[in-house]
Amino acid sequence: MGKSVGNSVGPSADDSTGESLGDSTGKSALITGITGQDGSYLTELLLEKGYTVHGLLRRSSSFNTGRIDHLYEDPHDEGRSLVLHHADLADGVALVNLLRDLRPDEVYNLGAQSHVRVSFDSPLYTGDVTAMGTLRLLEAIRASGIDTRIYQASSSEMFGAAPPPQNEATPFHPRSPYGCAKVFGYWATVNYREAYGLFAANGILFNHESPRRGETFVTRKITRAVARIRAGLQHHLYLGNLDAVRDWGYAPEYVEAMWLMLQAERPDDYVVATGSATTVRAFLEEAFLAGGLDWRAHVRFDPAYERPSEVDALIGDAAKAHDLLGWKPRVTWAELARVMVEADIAALEAELSGESVRVDRR
Ligand code: NDP
Ligand code: GDR
Question: Boundaries of each NAD(P)-binding domain copy (predicted)?
Answer without folding.
Answer: 30-340
